[in-house]
Write a structure and sequence with these properties.
Largest sheet: 8 strands, mixed
CATH class of the largest domain: Alpha Beta
Number of helices: 7
Helix content: 10-25%
Structural class: alpha+beta
Radius of gyration: 18 Å
Oligomer: single chain
Shape: globular
Distance between the termini: 42 Å
CATH topology of the largest domain: Fumarylacetoacetate hydrolase, domain 2
Order of helices and strands: EEEHHHEEHEEEEEHHEEEEHEEEE
CATH architecture of the largest domain: Alpha-Beta Complex
């Protein structure tokens, strides 16, 4: 698997499972990960990762921040796994149940996820998800061609203030939009246009315990169809993120550590705090 990433201090990188090189070694005319997104829809140039003037940096020697410093539109998808809908005693929707989150909700690996005051939301949940990152500006893309506009994938943690949502389902945007309520993964995995993700498992893990698990094959609307459906409504642009839904959520409290595990794509974790 090839990757794009950013160090915690903002240096853009390209790499693979062995390590990273400066992004400019792969794409000399780019200044950041977002600039490179249209270029990686067909995969990273392998020679640039193995034959570069700069030495390769081992992965364990790098502390990574969020892969996108300026994410574009942030979409969430509700009830995209049939099993999850059944757990909530709801019927799976006939069309993608999407919602927006603001860019200010995004944070990076480690978080922390900052919970609202208890009087506002005593019950907050976190969900592991696979997210699609758009690489090319597109409109009205067919699902069969969606791989041509996808730069890659990243794990995310989506967070919900459930008390707010339970007061009124129309408060969904508010319940999902607190600062730090979307933890972006530490890299963009670039699997190439012909790679199937059907066998990829997504797990929500709280304090080391798996609280929910499912595979991409069980999604009501798989990633490429989600890209196509949303492109019918609006223009999608490089850096837009579609978080494809969760196998299930776990309650989180101050002192917890939550993790999203997505096989072959990556892992992101964050600590949970409640500011005084």
């Amino acid at each position: 698997m090839d990757y794009l990433a950013r160090t915690v201090d903002g240096r853009p990188l390209a790499g693979d499972d062995e390590g990273f090189v400066p992004l400019r070694a792969a794409f000399p005319d780019t200044s950041g990960v977002r600039d490179a997104l249209p270029r990686v829809t067909d995969g990273l140039p392998a020679p640039a990762l193995t034959d570069v003037p700069a030495g390769r940096i081992p992965r364990e020697s790098v502390t990574l921040g969020p892969v996108l410093d300026r994410p574009g539109k942030l979409f969430g998808i509700g009830l995209n796994y049939t099993d999850h809908a059944a757990d909530l005693s709801e019927d799976p929707p006939d069309e993608p149940a999407s919602f927006f989150k603001p860019a200010t909700a995004a944070t990076g690996p480690g978080g922390p996820i900052r919970l609202p005051p208890t009087a506002e939301a005593a019950r907050v949940t976190a969900e592991a998800e696979l997210a699609v990152v758009i690489g090319r500006t597109c409109r009205a893309v067919d699902a069969a061609d969606a791989a041509e506009v996808i730069a890659g994938y990243t794990p995310v943690i989506d967070v919900t203030a459930e008390d707010v949502l339970r007061r009124n389902p129309r408060f969904l945007t508010r319940a999902k939009s607190y600062d730090t309520f979307l933890v972006l993964g530490p890299h963009l995995a670039v699997p190439g246009p012909d790679v199937s993700l059907n066998d990829v498992a997504v797990r929500t893990v709280v304090n080391g315990s798996v609280v929910a698990r499912n595979t991409v094959a069980n999604m009501q609307f798989p990633p490429r169809e989600l890209v196509a459906r949303h492109s019918e409504v609006m223009t999608l642009e490089p850096g837009d993120v579609i978080s494809t839904g969760t196998p299930g959520a776990g309650r989180i409290d101050p002192g917890d550590r939550v993790r999203a595990e997505v096989d072959r794509i990556g892992t992101v974790a964050a600590d949970v705090v409640r500011p005084e």
